[in-house]
Amino acid sequence: MGELTLIVGDIGALAVDAQIHPWGRNRLPWLLRPLSETSTSIRRHAGWRPLWDLWRRGPLTPGEACVTDGGRGPALYLVYVCLIETTHSALWKATDSAIRLAHDLGCRTVALPPLSAGRGPFSPETRLEPMLEILRAAQPAFEQIQVAVPSVEMAERLRPLFP
What we know:
By secondary structure, the protein is of the alpha/beta class. It has a single domain (3-161), classed as Leucine Aminopeptidase, subunit E, domain 1 (3-Layer(aba) Sandwich). 38% of the residues lie in helices and 20% in strands. It is built from six helices and six strands. The protein has helices spanning 29-32, 37-46, 49-57, 88-104, 124-138, 152-158, and strands at 3-8, 18-23, 65-69, 77-82, 109-112, 144-149. A six-stranded mixed β-sheet has the order 1-6-5-2-4-3, sandwiched between helices. The protein is globular and about 40 Å long.
């Protein structure tokens, strides 16, 4: 069975087969408004090309996942998943779509942040629960699944959810 771990760090710096990033429906979010944490991490580590490839692909529908190569970054693939709302079912569907795509690509190691951890009326712990349901079910198919958080404070809040 694969390892499911919580780590502190910039997901864009992780050398895994696939990094999973949340993405909105807007085709040009990184051109029309200040860069999000996700866009900034991708641009800093992988360069602009994966973002351009994502733009050329067109808008994503909620829960849909798509892939680009890892650009100049340490990951082989960047998987993007569209997440518009932070309901249990939306988080479950988005996580499931992204993990299935990573598996279909033959990935053995993946990293993802708590999807939508900074948005919505629910706590990060509540938003992580549907994700962990999918990730635990997927553990046998992967060598390692890393949930990356940006701060020690968030890691301390979420640590009780990891056995």
